[in-house]
């Protein structure tokens, strides 16, 4: 549905299930007032849902936090390897009739230091896989327990230490006000010259203009990006068209297996929320005052 169609139709439904391409704005939530009770995000990131407006409209927001974890981690590893070996550039060149073996000499992963920024579900699965590739893995996450990292053979370090020591950096934190554009001119300046960056988290954690500057100067040798601040990015985006950048159109969760799992996970979560059973696990539950939650649950049970 287009945003206009969604606004026109949302009031006919008790629940709305979306992927990342649909923005559940204050306008959508207000248009749904009176009937809409649950917003289901068929995936992890809930940065496309206005949680405050949902809470004010009496809507629970639930997500599908686990079913696409491995798909996203596998895509991160795929991008890491493709980037290091110039796979997309060499593929395009060969299809254009150019056999350029010298131009596309790559770099090895084995023995290199990989910094995982955000050591949650996806980040820790990327870490496991990177250990299998012989990489030295460090991680930064202000909330992750050190023993979880240790069990995987990764070391938790500060933000500054992670970005300063890494040959490769893989981003796995959610987009929040605190993580917006944390990768910017200042942080790129503190990285090793020739660092390589993978982003399967959210485009908004990177200042994309700063990344273009860092790529142009050679500070960042390469980037592999699945996500962008604006999706789809502009056709003439300097970042997307940069010769040292490998891109995919937000495919991290797009495997047959992950989408089947997500569909089941979100159907169960939305069904549970509509029956009033899963209210406590709703993403915005902590924002709903206890007395409002009780009333909401009563309403949900009545429907
Ligand atoms: N490209 C895709 O298709 C795709 C697929 C799945 C997830 N994602 C993105 O990846 C993100 C992570 O997914 P997940 O399932 O691992 O979520 P998660 O909640 O399990 O992990 C996120 C981790 O980030 C940490 N974190 C929070 N703030 C941080 C900060 N300032 N610095 C470092 N770490 C911080 C959290 O403590 C948590 O451990 C999602 O929010 C989503 O945006 C993208
Ligand atoms: O946050 C997520 O789960 C991913 O970005 C996947 O989003 P999508 O299901 O809209 O592709």
Automatic annotation (TrEMBL):
- Swiss-Prot/TrEMBL keywords: NAD, Oxidoreductase
Query: By its UniProt entry, which SUPFAM superfamilies does this protein fall under?
Result: Formate/glycerate dehydrogenase catalytic domain-like, NAD(P)-binding Rossmann-fold domains
Similarity remark: Belongs to the D-isomer specific 2-hydroxyacid dehydrogenase family.
The cross-references to CDD domains, in alphabetical order and at most eight, read: PGDH_4 (cd12173)
EC number(s) per entry: 1.1.1.95
Q: Which PANTHER family match?
A: D-3-PHOSPHOGLYCERATE DEHYDROGENASE, FORMATE DEHYDROGENASE 1
Q: What is this protein called?
A: phosphoglycerate dehydrogenase
Query: Catalytic activity annotated for this protein?
Result: (2R)-3-phosphoglycerate + NAD(+) = 3-phosphooxypyruvate + NADH + H(+)
Instruction: Please provide an example of a Pfam family that matches this protein in its UniProt record.
Output: 2-Hacid_dh
Q: What pathway is this protein said to act in by its record?
A: Amino-acid biosynthesis; L-serine biosynthesis; L-serine from 3-phospho-D-glycerate: step 1/3
The organism's superkingdom is given as Eukaryota
Species annotation: Triticum turgidum subsp. durum (Durum wheat)
> GO molecular function of the protein, one example?
phosphoglycerate dehydrogenase activity
Record-annotated S-adenosyl-L-homocysteine hydrolase NAD binding domain positions = 102-256
For the keyword NAD, the answer is: yes
Cellular compartments per GO CC: chloroplast stroma
Q: Which InterPro entries would you find in this protein's record?
A: Ado_hCys_hydrolase_NAD-bd, D-isomer_2_OHA_DH_cat_dom, D-isomer_DH_CS, D-isomer_DH_CS1, D-isomer_DH_NAD-bd, NAD(P)-bd_dom_sf
Enzyme superclass (EC): oxidoreductase
> Carries keyword NAD?
yes
């Amino acid at each position: 549905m287009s945003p206009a169609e969604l606004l026109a139709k949302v009031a006919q439904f008790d629940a709305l299930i979306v992927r990342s391409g649909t923005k559940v704005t204050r306008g959508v939530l207000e248009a749904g007032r009176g009937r809409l009770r649950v917003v289901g995000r068929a995936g992890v990131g809930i940065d496309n849902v206005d949680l405050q407006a949902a809470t004010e409209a009496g809507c629970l927001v639930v997500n599908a936090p686990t079913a696409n974890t491995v798909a996203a981690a596998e895509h991160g590893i795929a991008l890491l390897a493709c980037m290091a070996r110039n796979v997309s550039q060499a593929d395009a060149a060969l299809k254009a009739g150019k056999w350029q073996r010298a131009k596309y000499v790559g770099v090895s992963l084995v023995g290199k230091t990989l910094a995982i920024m955000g050591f949650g579900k996806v980040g820790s699965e990327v870490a496991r896989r990177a250990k299998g590739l012989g990489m030295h893995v460090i991680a930064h996450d202000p909330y992750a327990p050190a023993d979880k990292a240790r069990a995987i053979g990764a070391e938790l370090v500060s933000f500054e230490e992670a970005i300063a020591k890494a040959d490769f950096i893989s981003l796995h934190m959610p987009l929040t006000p605190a993580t917006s554009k944390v990768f910017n001119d200042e942080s790129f300046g503190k990285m090793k010259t020739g660092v390589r960056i993978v982003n399967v988290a959210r485009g908004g954690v990177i200042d994309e203009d700063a990344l273009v500057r860092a790529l142009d100067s050679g500070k960042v040798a390469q980037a592999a990006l699945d996500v962008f601040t604006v999706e789809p990015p502009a056709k003439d985006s300097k970042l997307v068209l940069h010769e040292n950048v490998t891109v995919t159109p937000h495919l991290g969760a797009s495997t047959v297996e992950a989408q089947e799992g997500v569909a089941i996970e979100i159907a169960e979560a939305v069904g549970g929320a509509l029956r009033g059973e899963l209210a406590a696990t709703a993403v915005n539950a902590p924002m709903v005052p206890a007395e409002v939650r009780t009333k909401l649950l009563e309403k949900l049970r009545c429907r």
